Amino acid sequence: MFLEKIKKEILKEKYSKEELLKDEYLIDSESQIKIYYAPFEYINKKASVIIVGITPGWSQMEKSFRTVIRELQLNKSLDSALKTVKSESSFAGSMRKNLVKMLDELELNKTLKLESTNELFNLTNNSLHTTSIIKYPVFNKGENYRGSSPSVINTDILWKQVEKEFVPEINNFTDALIIPLGKSVEETLRKLQSEKMLNENLILYGFPHPSGANGHRFKQFESNKESMKQKISNWKITI
């Protein structure tokens, strides 16, 4: 339904919030919270590494629309277009740079026999799947939702999305390495685990959110670094 609407959009160099945050792309709303569609359906079921964020922000949403419209206008298949969206829009910019730096310090690249974990984001690499606890972009009072105030697990509209979209998606995987970015994602995964809603995977708890706005990420990373390295080292036996 949403993709049929997207196909009618004109390709632009940049879209405004007024052009995309409109009722025809609205999935659900409650009080000040609004959830909008963005083309993030692609699931790489061959992946052994799953990176989980909280929710796509406006920048990722805007780029995903530009990418899928461009790819479809180039007569690419829908599956190919959605795959390209994930490759180009997931944790783009400085966040990806910070993420790669930390993953390389944990020597995940060596475990996967890569020069750098930056290679995971290449279209030709099938080892990575990226997703979010809340699959589609969430806005609170018109701004990017940051994962707290309100919390995911205590907010019906958000938890409904976790159960409806995230749980079936993440349960495509078994024996994978799941990397939750930040405390809100970690809290959600722990609740899902405690309620036995998840398959058996190795969850790398303690990994900080790689956003440049997260000033605590260096301290958190250093305090958990050795234990995370050990977990990755043990995990490689099973892959």
Assign the CATH class. Answer: Alpha Beta
Measured distance between first and last alpha carbons: 38 Å
What is the gyration radius calculated from CA atoms? 17 Å
| Count of strand segments | 8
How would you describe what is shown here?
InterPro entries: Uracil-DNA_glycosylase-like_sf. The protein is α/β, with parallel strands linked by helices. It has one domain: 3-Layer(aba) Sandwich (Uracil-DNA Glycosylase, subunit E). The strands form 2 sheets. The chain has a 4-stranded antiparallel sheet with strand order 1-2-5-6, with no helix packed on it. Strands 4-3-7-8 form a 4-stranded parallel sheet. A hairpin with a 2-residue loop joins strand 5 and strand 6. The longest helix has 19 residues. The chain is globular. The mean pLDDT is 92.
What key attributes describe this structure?
Uracil DNA glycosylase superfamily protein, 9 helices, alpha/beta, Uracil-DNA_glycosylase-like_sf, 239 residues, 8 strands, four-stranded antiparallel β-sheet, Uracil-DNA Glycosylase, subunit E, four-stranded parallel β-sheet
Summary of the model, kept short:
It comes from Kordia antarctica. The chain is 41% helix and 13% strand.
Layout of helices and strands, plus pairs?
Elements: H1 2-6, H2 17-20, E1 26-30, E2 33-36, E3 49-53, H3 58-73, H4 78-89, H5 94-105, H6 108-111, E4 128-132, E5 138-140, E6 143-144, H7 156-170, E7 177-180, H8 183-194, E8 202-203, H9 217-235
Parallel strand pairs: 3-4, 3-7, 7-8
Antiparallel strand pairs: 1-2, 2-5, 5-6
Helix pairs in contact: 3-4
InterPro entries: Uracil-DNA_glycosylase-like_sf (IPR036895)
Organism: Kordia antarctica
Protein name: Uracil DNA glycosylase superfamily protein
